[in-house]
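Exercise 7.
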Amino acid sequence: MISVVIPSYRRRDGMLALLADVYRQEGVDFEVIVVDDRSPDDSVEAIRREFPQVKLIVNEVNSGPSVTRNRGVREAKGEIVVGFDSDVTLPDANLLAKVEASFKDASVTGVAMRIFKPDGKSEDVGRWWHSQPIGTHADQRFETSYFSGTAYAFRREDMLAAGLFPEILYMHYEEVELAWRIMDGGGRIIHEPEQIVIHHANPVSRRGEVEVFLKPRNQILIAASCLPIPQAAAYALPRTSYQAFKACTHGHFKDFVRAMISAMKLLPKQWSLRKPLRGETLRRIGALKQASS
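Solution. The predicted structure, written as tokens, is:
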């Protein structure tokens, strides 16, 4: 069985549209779990009214995407977890059946789905963090070291073994760390071009806060958590320098300082959770990058 896990925050109409698409899926058994992150609108009431069959969980306090997704995964009963953000729609009624078919290959641990913009034709470039270039590989099936939280699927037991989404990050880079942890456990993530969702970008996603605060902070935290010290320095220092330069030239220096202060406050806890990736995993990630060049 598949467990569809959807985090929800202040996106009532988008959520209802997505749920309608999920319940049109054919040829597969599934359950739907929605975890609402204390939406200030009437999302919870609308879901209960329109889709009473949904397993609906409401966080006691607003906790962010990582906590919200993890709560859904822990509640899931299916062997496969499919995750969608609440601002996507599913144009294919056989999407979940295609996901299930992917996992018939025992070597597949996770699936990164293909994400289109609202026109249903253009690639969502902003969510393409794969090593391979989007221009040549968007319609190709390949192994990757990344997936977007917008649309993905994993074997549930492997997500749990990898530690789920790192909650200390709140949002941004949480998919990167989970992908690395999955690979560190021997897993394989496959980009599946025939498994398509349409992403309807929503202002609730806090892109400004992500760019000026969460991105520079979380680059430091993920390096501290996942990389051996030399690689952590090589990863974090140039990125932090670039973020500082960009902050100065774009008038966001106060936000950058705020991000650095937050990183320093969280670093002791992150260091206590530190588990550097195995050398074999780092070589695999490097090989995937080299394959794209």
